[in-house]
Design goal:
The chain is of the alpha+beta class. The chain has one domain: N-terminal domain of TfIIb, CATH 2.20.25. The chain is built from 2 helices and 5 strands. Strands 1, 2, 3, 4 and 5 form a 5-stranded antiparallel beta sheet that branches. Strand 3 and strand 4 form a beta hairpin. The protein is globular and about 30 Å long. The chain starts with a helix and ends with a helix.
């Protein structure tokens, strides 16, 4: 299940307030500004900073 395109357009990182990018597999939202990655579960983005994954750790796990 992927996130709705209209929802993606209005979402912003809770830390940087910048737009988010959808990962290639559609399961994560990436903020390059804050270097955080947010998981999408059942089409719902988990936008809690405490649940976010540091970008560098996420990139290592994707390799």
């Amino acid at each position: 299940m992927t996130i709705d395109k209209e929802l993606l357009e209005i979402l912003a990182c809770p830390v940087s307030k910048k737009p988010l990018e959808l990962s290639a597999d559609g399961n994560f939202l990436v903020c390059k500004e804050s270097k955080l990655v947010y998981k999408i579960q059942d089409g719902i983005p988990i936008m809690l900073v405490d649940e976010a994954i540091p970008l560098d750790e996420w990139e290592k796990s994707q390799a």
